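Bug: token stream looks shifted between consecutive jobs. Job 1:
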Amino acid sequence: MTTLLVLPAGIAWIVAAVLAPMDGRKPVWSWIAAAGLAASFVASVLLVFETLEGGPVETVAGGWPEGVGITLRADVLGASFAAVSLAVLLAAFVHEVLVGVRSRTFPALVLFLAAGLSGLFLTRDIFNFYVFFEISMTSAYILTGYREKDPQVRAAFIFAVVNLLGSVVFLFGIAAIYHVTGSLDMEVVAERIARVKPASILPIATSFFVAFSLKLGLFPFHFWLPAVYVGSHPSVAAILSGALANIGSYGFLRFGAGLMPKELGFGALVLLVLGVASIVYGALQAISRHATNEVMAYSAIGQVGYILVALAIGGPVGYAAAVVYAIVNALNKALVFLASGIRGPLAGAAFAVGAFSIAGVPPAAGFVGKVALFQTSIDAEGTFRSAALLVLIFVGSALSFLYSFQVYQRGFLAREGGDNRRPSPRAARTLTVALAVLVLALGLWPEPLLVLGEESANLLLEPPNRGLAEGGAP
């Protein structure tokens, strides 16, 4: 099992290194890259099953002593995020291969991004988290400029500036947490932070919150997101929204609920307010837009608000809802951005599944996410608070349905019979429809999502178990 732990990042990294000097526009290299991504995805899925059955799996890469080498650790939370992120990367990459790769570096960059994300979700060390974070962000920055037209170049520049800002803030948080706890091992940090006064940790927690909020595009840190998502090529937009954005969701869960739960509780009201503001602002902005990608970009701002609301409520129900909604949201965003870039029969149907899943319309998977949020609202402390959250979810869902219907009508119904452009390749359309079928299947059979959410919540609520074996109090 320790070998399996290394495979998701290791396979992607090795294949990326081999393909880096090759011309990725040639089909043979593109399909080799797709095979590498598929192997990494299969390994991550096997890790999910392993962590569900036998608990976390841990190893130190290269046989180095613990504390010196890169410590890898797979638990159900990290393995789930790795699996869904690699699934999105695989779908978006194969979609682009079927349409036609336009850059020699595209396959290698997607593989480097896959390696960075896998390592990030499967590491136990905060500094290594930062290293994999930077690998992912650097790859994503170059991918944002894919096809090198004016919109892509502008999007890449904006993304680079935001990436630099987020990296500086995150690095500050890492230095501060090491100063306070004397360690960067996540389990040791969690145990030692529990014995430090919250006043010393709150500034550190705030720095992590800002860094992850920038990555998620949470209001009021959303200033970069619409320009980047709209300017990016559809396959790249699917990667950014469906895979890379998972860093923010995972970061909130791992660093907030896992490492600093007391500080998360102190800031619950702030999280709740920002989550509500994101939901309302994103939905209203989406309604006022016309271009499909622009509507979906503002929709992304609103959808992450639900994750923050679930985190603010906390507890087993809140954390489980946050995990479920994050997974479903990743699949929804990948589907709508990929479907928006294709033409021909069933393209509109695939987009409709993703759009109405965002709105929480059954039987799509988005309905499962909204039901989990309803349960979170019901369990919220205080009758008024519970009622207000229920109203918010109803209103947010209604607004989501409105802009989903509007964008479907403008983007697909209005152009039927009037679009004489050549349809997209049949294989690309089939792939997108298959992703839509997956979203429907998870809505009809939600048990896997609910199990992942419940087990991840239980993991986050477990007390640190490393004790003081690795040093005394800081």
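Job 2, same session, no restart:
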Amino acid sequence: MPSATLTDSEIEKALAELPGWTRSASAKVRTIQRVFEFSDFVQAMQFVNKVAEAAESANHHPDIDIRYNKVTMALTSHDSGGVTNRDIKMAKKINDIR
């Protein structure tokens, strides 16, 4: 069963406690996202692999874009059509990994 999507004010409140995360500018799909920057590609990939393990354990997978030393993580609950508490929890886990 899909999770309930968060309201705009609930998302803003959650983002206030998630350093670096913002709302996506895209009007098509509501997401939260963060860009992480590393000293090189190897460190970026080590981070991505740690996130992959956490995501697999949580059964909630971010969209990941890797550009050399920059990694963009985007979270949305596709089955719910927007940002849910699952996304907020995963964002916290990702921040903890960093």
